[in-house]
Amino acid sequence: MEIKELQQHIIRSFVGDPLSYKEQLNALQRQCSALLHEQNIAQQQEKAAGVATTLLYLFSSQDWDLEKAVLSYVQHRVSPGKKIALIGTSASPITNGHLTMGLEILALTDVDMVWYYLVGKHPWGKKLMPAHHRVQMARLATQRYPRMGVSDFEVIHGEQIYKDTMETAELMRKYFLPAYPQHQFSWVMGSDVAQSFHEWSGCEWMSENMSIYIIHRLGYEFAKADSILASDRHVYLKEDIVTSNISSTLVRNRGRDYNQEKILALVPEVVWDYLVQHRLLDPDVLAL
């Protein structure tokens, strides 16, 4: 059976009970999450079939060209390497502060893209919102920006690689960079984090093999010339930089009573809607 014929068959199977666009996306999220955590091979196949069915229904109902989209994506994956800046974050949840940092990197450097690199688990053991929710909110928040992306590498592979290390530099060296050999990656950090970068395990390797952009944060001066990041390869963006003190903790603290007016300036509306829909600001949501 041809793909187009299969799509039509799927569309007919939903007649009388059509899914809205939002329902399709929600169904995909639930199915992908279930697939990610399924250990039984037969059940994995069944759940993967559910994901494929919903995807085909999504393309058909939106009148999208599946073949064209897939070919474009594959060509993009194998296209010549890009300069990509990684913003490491737990994004619990992603905020307007995260987006501001990414937009400033795109505005003031020569990188092609910014990827938000989401941790699977916090390296210091802090409690976070469930990983699949954090990834979905980050994707919703960045979907309007063509040069932004979200990396769920740690979320997907964390159970295996965390047995070896949770150190950022080691994860970059052993796992992440080898997975994308065609790209040239840099790392983004605030001047507050840069002050203690020399204490990171593997910081020497990271400073020698990756360019690092330091975003100035009010109240946190960074003596770059006297640091491990003194090389011209690393850039301290201090003058004429837009910075923010918005944090995920601030969002969670202000949003406890689900009063949108209290966090209008803190998160994009799509993130607010998601937080409300999944009750992610409830006090018992955070987990290790």
Task: Describe the protein in words.
The protein has helices spanning 3-13, 21-37, 41-61, 66-77, 96-108, 131-142, 153-161, 168-179, 191-194, 203-209, 248-254, 269-277; strands at 83-89, 113-118, 148-151, 184-190, 211-215, 235-237. It is an alpha/beta fold and 288 residues long. The chain has two domains: 3-75; 81-237, 3-Layer(aba) Sandwich (Rossmann fold). The chain has a six-stranded parallel beta sheet with strand order 3-2-1-4-5-6, sandwiched between helices. α5 links the parallel β1 (83-89) and β2 (113-118). α1 crosses α3 (41-61), α2 runs antiparallel to α3 and α6 (131-142) packs antiparallel against α12 (269-277). The longest helix has 21 residues, at 41-61. The radius of gyration is 21 Å and the shape is globular. The mean pLDDT is 90.
